[in-house]
Each structure stands twice: as structure tokens, then as C-alpha cells.
Specification:
The chain has 209 residues and is mainly alpha-helical. The protein has 7 helices and 5 strands.
Amino acid sequence: MNNQEPKSRVQRYNFNADDQPSSRRRRRQRRWWPWVLTVVTLTIAVLLVLVINTRKSSSSSDTATASSVESSLTAKSSSTSEQSVYESFEAKYRQALTNGTLTAAQKQKLQAIINNEDNSATQAREQKLLDQAEVTKSSTATSSSNTSQSSTTKESSNPTSFGTTHTFSSVNDAQNWAQASKSQWLQAGYSTYTITSDGQGNYNLQFVR
């Protein structure tokens, strides 16, 4: 009797098969698209920031330029207006001027125009121009003043002259002449005197009984 079992019935088991590494391992696929998407997003964000800043800078520059142009135009308009006002005053001054002189009334009228001027720079220019002119004395005032100062003795010898009006160029001249001849006009029967202005820079002296 044969004790050997047929080969077909022999089975071999390898219990260490699970412990051996597999010769074929699947390679892990690397995913690049999240990184690409992140880079693209950051690039777009940077570009947007640059565009916004550029527009803001351009807008600020345009605003500053417009403001500068507006200020320049305003200053130019103001300067033109000041020059126009000064030229108008100068024309009136030249018209009133005679041989480099003005009468007291003319100068007073021009001075009133200067006093009413709002712009200080224009006012200073006008005042400088007016100060160049000399004020003339009327021929009547000059003649009367010279006569009164040089003929006090003649006046005293003619008492009736106190009854006429005497014209002087200033109040002081009139008062001085009245005081100098006080004894004569008192002797002639006059008690006091009055001094009035004729509105043209002259002062009239009259004696009152």
C-alpha cells in the first residue's frame, strides 16, 4: 500500500505574502491647478490695485491742474480790473490837471474818489499820482493876501476899507491880519469879525459893527 498522497492534493500556503511590498505601486498624481489658480488670482488683484491707483493719481492731477488754472484766471481778472480802475482815475486826474497844478476843489474831489476805493493797492497808486500835483491859489486870494500883508498902514489910514470883504488863502492869514489891524477896525466902530469859506479854498474876512 502506497502512503504517499498524490501531488494534486498537495497545497502550499505562503502566509508571508501580505508582508511583502507590492512591486507595483501607483504613483500619486500631483495636482498643479490649485497653485496656478492662486497665482492667476493674485496677479489679477495686483493689476486691479495698480489700475485703481493710476486712475486716482490721474484724477488728483487733473483736479490740481484745474484748480491752478482757475486761480491763475482769477488773479489775471483781478489784475485787469485793478488796472482799469486806475486808468479811469488817471484819466480824470489828467483832465483836471493844468500846467502840473490842481485847484483845491479839484484835488478835494479826486481825494474823495481815492478814499472810496476798496482795493488798497489801487488806492496807493492813485494817492501817489495825486500827491505829485501842486495846488494852485486863486488869483483873487493871492492878490488879496499880498495886498493885506504889504499895506497894513494903508488900511489903517482908510477906515472905510473895513467895510469890504477881504479874501485870504487860509484861516490863519485872515486871523493874523484881523489881529494886526484890531485897533484900527475897533476905532472905526467895528466890534468883531467873521471868517467864512467860499468853497474854493479861499476864506473871506468881514468886520461886524
